[in-house]
Every structure is written in C-alpha cells, then in structure tokens.
Amino acid sequence: MCRWLGYIGPPTTPNRYLYEDRFSLIEQSHTARKSKSVVNGDGFGLGWYAAEQAEPGLFRDILPAWSDENLKSLATHIKSGLFFAHVRAATSTSTNRTNCHPFRHDNSLFVHNGQIGGYQTVRRKVEALIHDDLYTERLGTTDSEALFLGLKSLMKGSQPFCESTQELIDLVVNMMRSHNITEPFRYTSAYSEGEKIYAVRYSSDKLSPSLFYSKIEGGWLLVSEPLDNQLNHWQLVPANHTIELCRHSAEPVIKAL
Predict the structure, then answer these.
(1) What residues form DSSP beta bridges with 113?
(2) 3-class secondary structure for 132-192?
(3) β-pairing, 197-203 with 57-61?
(4) Domain-located, residue 217
(5) Is this model's pTM higher than 0.90 or not?
(6) CB neighbour class for 57 (10 Å; exposed up to 12, middle 13-18, buried from 19)
(7) What is the domain count for the chain?
(8) What is the pLDDT of residues 71-127, one digit of tens each?
(9) Closest CA to 89 of 161, 186, 160
(10) 49 is a domain residue
(11) For residue 178, how many other CB atoms are within 10 A of its CB?
C-alpha cells in the first residue's frame, strides 16, 4: 500500500509536509505506521498547480523518495496553493516512472492507495472503461492509472465526482464478481482540477485504507496517515465516503457512497 498527501490552502512550499513534520511523507516512505507495507520505496511523485499555468507541474522518479536530492530541492523552491505528493509500494506492476503517482491529464491530478483484487483477470475490462480519446494517455500498466482514466471518462459528460466515483466502483465490483474474484477492491484516492480536492475512501471488504483530514489556516491537509502525534486535529474520513475540500470552507463536504 502507498502513502500520499494533498494540500490546499495559501501558497506554500511542500517541504514541511514532505520532510519536516514528525511523521512527514518521507518518514512514512520508510516507516509507515498505518499501512500493510511499512516501506514505500518503489518510486515517488510530486504534482502541483502554479499560477498562470493551465497544466499542473509533475515530477516523478523510481528512486526511493528519501534518497532523491532533486525532490528535496524542488520541495524547498516550489510554492503552490494545491499539491499532491505520493510514495509508492508496488503491488503487481513494475517499478518505472510511468507507474509512479500522481497521474496527470490536462488540468487534473490523481493519486491512489489500494488495488483491484485479481486485477490481471479483469484488466482488459477495466481498461475498456477508458474512452478512446483518453486511452492514448494510458502510459503505464497500473490499475491506479486505469481507474484515473476511467473516472475521467465517466466525468466527461459533466457528471459530478461523487456520482462518477460511485459508478466507477459499481462497475469494477461487478466485473470482479463476474469472475468470482474474492480479493478486495480497495480504493482510497484523491483528484483535483486545481480549485478543490475530491477524495474517496472505499473498500469492498470493510478494510478501507486509512485517510485523514485536518483544518489548517486558510485550507486543509488530506493524508494517508497523520503527520504528527496531535491526534485531536486529525479526523478520519468515514469508510465508503467521499470528501470535498475547498480553501476557505469552514467544513468539508462528506457524502456516503
């Protein structure tokens, strides 16, 4: 299982959340506390939105995040009001740059923690959810990227995130059932087009990967696991729910699937 974080708020550098906090994302990359995989060293990525740029920036590599000097430099120099960062623990697909998160298409970014049970059995059907005009954007081999492009395909008809997410989950679960797959579908992910962060915490076996949110001055943090021991300001996203975060909202919008 992977570890990731999302930030939305006043423009800031990612350095604090990647390196400085007690349980920063880099700390989680080699000592995760709430993950089946303690070490998440199969690549990393940072995606960010910059003023006057239509497409978000993206930096990914296959090195362990803790050993990459370029990531450290970027994290102290980039300033953004919305960014995602991700450290990967590979499951059934290879370790290469195109399989590292975040995934990007036009103005959108996506990160994921989880997996489709029996993915190789249903892979062709899952990929069939991707519209033809998006399939050329399929650069890697992960179920995560396929879910992202499948979600984008469902949202092309202006269907909102929550409804598209519910439809995507239902379609994948039905595919798995048709093949008698008993392994779970675990899907904790975040998506953005630069103005809000949308996320979902779901699992077909009631063991959803963890997802927490915290109010900060002028915005929000969304994380796989808390970045410090001050647990009173971290709230767990309920299992099988979506969450929507806006910069200046007093409360998140949380909906049941």
Answers:
(1) 188
(2) HHHHCCCCCCCHHHHHHHHHHHHHCCCCCHHHHHHHHHHHHHHHHHHCCCCCCEEEEEEEE
(3) unpaired
(4) yes
(5) yes
(6) middle
(7) 1
(8) 999 999 999 999 999 998 766 666 788 999 999 999 999 999 999 999 999 999 999
(9) 186
(10) yes
(11) 11
Helix, strand, or coil (residue 107): coil
What are 178-232's pLDDT values in tens digits?
Answer: 999 999 999 999 999 999 999 999 999 989 999 999 999 999 999 999 999 888 8
Paired residues of 104 in beta bridges: 109
pLDDT band at 58 (very low <50, low <70, confident <90, very high): very high
Considering only residues 168 and 52, tell me which one the structure prediction assigns the higher pLDDT: 168
Count the Cβ atoms, other than its own, within 10 Å of residue 248: 8
- CATH number of the domain residue 68 falls in: 3.60.20.10
- Determine the structural domain holding residue 214 and report its residue range: 3-113+189-256
Is residue 162 domain-resident? no
The helix or strand, by DSSP H or E, that contains position 25, with its residue range, turns out to be helix 25-30
Contact assessment for residue 248 and residue 217, using Cβ atoms and an 8 Å cutoff:
no
pLDDT band at 39 (very low <50, low <70, confident <90, very high): low
Measured CA angle at 200 (ends 209, 223), to 5 deg: 60
Place of tokens 């008698």: 180
Q: Is 194 helix (H, G, I), strand (E, B) or coil?
A: coil
Rg (CA), the chain: 17
Cα–Cα distance between 72 and 16 in angstroms, integer? Answer: 11
Distances (CA, A) of 138 to 38, 148, 217: 29, 10, 37
The mean-pLDDT minimum among 36-50, 59-73, 112-126 falls in 36-50
